[in-house]
Amino acid sequence: MLDLSLVEVEKAIEATRIGPTESVPACFPEVSIDSRTIQPGQAFFCIKGVRHDGHKFISAALERGAAVIVVSARSEGTNPVDNCIFLEVEDTTRALQQLSALVRSRWGGPIVAITGSMGKTTTKHFIAAVTGAGRTVHQTPGNFNNEFGLPLSLLALESHHQLAILELGMNHAGEIRRLGQICSPNYAVLTNVAPVHLEFFEDLNGIAEAKGEILETLQEPATLFYNIDDPLIRKLALRHRAESVSFGFDESAEYRVASYAAENLESTQVTITGAQEVLELVVPFSGRHVLYNLVAAVAVASKLGMTPESIRRSMAGLHLLPMRGQAKKLRGFTLWDDSYNSNPAAVASVLETIRDLSSYSRKIIVLADMLELGRKTEELHYGVGTKVAECRPDLLITVGEASLHIGRGAIDQGLPTNSTRHFDDAASAAEYLEQTLRPGDLLLVKGSRGMQLDRIVRKLEGDPS
Known about the structure:
By secondary structure, the protein is of the alpha/beta class.
């Protein structure tokens, strides 16, 4: 974190100090919102979330040596103690965001903010990997992309960082606007709009409008990178009056995936054309949906001044993150681990790749419930089932109550009933798969995070937990 005085922070977060006037730290310390991770001398923000209230862990933070504790006004347990300063604020979440906005302003470097329904984390990872050649890049750790995670990402900025790549997530209208106001991005990447969080929106147009809030917060040079193949994203781009750069597969895209070919999941030959360059690449992964993340990274890197040759070199160590499309060789079969999350559009993209692969003896697909789809839950699961049937897997395994509709859709579309199996939970499916898989098989595992399909992956990898 950048050096900030206690007085500066008190003013930024509108705090009232309670505690000793002696032994005041010269600089405001590193921040944590989890009492279990507090290190001596750090600051603890008592965040009140849906499941936990940080104020209940003040004593734990004190025991671990917190030097500053930020609390909501009128909270209990804020009596002065030796060697610890309490800062009272109206709202601790807002205070955390105010502090992070101060850090962003003081740092002053360029920020790339990524939002969309799918592929945010992979796009962030690719952009950071490519642009990190020759510059010091800071990126959102993991998927720290919400009202708590984004501020913590900003607080980790250091003076030596030359570029920040941040991920912005949401499940309600207004969240992207607030996150954008906190991080004041110079560049925005809009990946796509898909039926994700439909439980909280009327339709896809509502999701698109919520994603488009990022445009209101862009700072000069205010460049938008957008997926031209997505009609709702394209419509948003028309409203952006500053510079816009398109990417995708469409012939009109400024940065375009002109061709690609994959014989298996471990290698894809890709040709990307840009404003003045043609990139011939071989990347160690597969899937049309991942190539959107790749071409977005090329577009951003080019805009930031990287040459085609430097981009090509930076691709040498590119890889996918765990549970986001990794291909693993296990006891003669191939596991495609895409177990981190799922939605109807993401499944459709993966199934398209599965359909075109021909180097495996059997194709086995494991799909679990897709969450937060609201009243369209049954309809969208059934639709996924019809797409499963189109790629003719040798075996479809469904996990969870809603996924029963996936199986029904697949059978109605012609998949033989004896080619389907259903399980109530991931553990039961894992036990079945251990007995079923054979050398030469391809196994896809994909489902919403809450369905814990990573338990299948761990079981097949030999982890008994």
